[in-house]
Task: inverse folding
């Protein structure tokens, strides 16, 4: 079975500061990993994905994540937070590691940006 | 492309009533997924289809839930009878196996059962 743990249900940073959202996964097969963002009353939008190519993945809106197999982690970062980054962020792993099946999501991290 | 379309966006019903949620995937996508989001349990996969065939329904909570995909452009999720604990946001997502692993999510249906 796959699982995802997101450390910190709420993270607060100042505008312009580094954003770091933590994600650790458990998978019995090589995983495919994803970060999604959800704005209030909207669906989920893909930020970036790791599909066994480069371990440092760049996504939209200046976000990036690094896959570290030894640490079973896929943390999301952004060098400088913007007010528009305030949202809910979800880390997810594909069910069978092949990317073909449904996603298993973490509980989510609510990102708060302080002016 | 219009994206994944879900209807209705909001549904309020009384306990015991039948509820039908609808989804139109992105044209050409061969995978369709139904998820449920609640505060307590987060986002959960309920069922998914490949080429209109149900592949894994192990996430469907109980027999009151059923899903169908009669053709490549339409799917339904039905709850009969509905209960207050079914209140949640239900998302539909689709994916094209030929291009990328990204799942495209619809805006969701917010279901309230009173």
Result:
């Amino acid at each position: 079975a796959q699982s995802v743990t997101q450390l910190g249900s709420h993270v607060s940073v100042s505008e312009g500061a580094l954003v770091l959202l933590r994600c650790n996964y458990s998978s019995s097969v090589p995983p495919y990993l994803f970060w999604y963002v959800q704005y209030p009353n909207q669906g989920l939008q893909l930020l970036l994905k790791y599909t066994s190519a480069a371990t440092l993945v760049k996504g939209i809106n200046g976000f990036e994540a690094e896959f570290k197999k030894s640490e079973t982690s896929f943390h999301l970062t952004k060098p400088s937070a913007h007010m528009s980054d305030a949202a809910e962020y979800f880390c997810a792993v594909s069910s069978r590691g092949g990317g073909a099946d449904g996603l298993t999501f973490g509980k989510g991290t609510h990102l708060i940006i302080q002016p | 492309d219009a994206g994944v379309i879900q209807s209705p966006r909001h549904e309020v019903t009384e306990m015991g009533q039948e509820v039908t949620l609808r989804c139109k995937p992105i044209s050409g996508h061969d995978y369709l997924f139904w998820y449920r989001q609640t505060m307590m349990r987060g986002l959960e996969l309920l069922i998914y289809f490949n080429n209109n065939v149900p592949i894994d329904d192990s996430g469907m909570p109980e027999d009151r839930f059923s899903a169908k995909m009669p053709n490549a452009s339409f799917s339904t999720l039905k709850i009969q009878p509905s209960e207050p604990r079914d209140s949640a946001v239900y998302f539909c997502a689709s994916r094209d196996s030929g291009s990328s692993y990204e799942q495209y999510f619809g805006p969701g249906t917010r279901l309230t059962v009173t």
Chain B touches chain A at residues 4, 31, 33, 35, 42-45, 48, 50, 55-56, 59, 91, 93, 97, 100-108 (CB under 8 Å). The mean pLDDT of chain B is 94. DSSP finds no helices and eleven strands in chain B. The first strand of chain B starts at residue 5 and ends at 7.
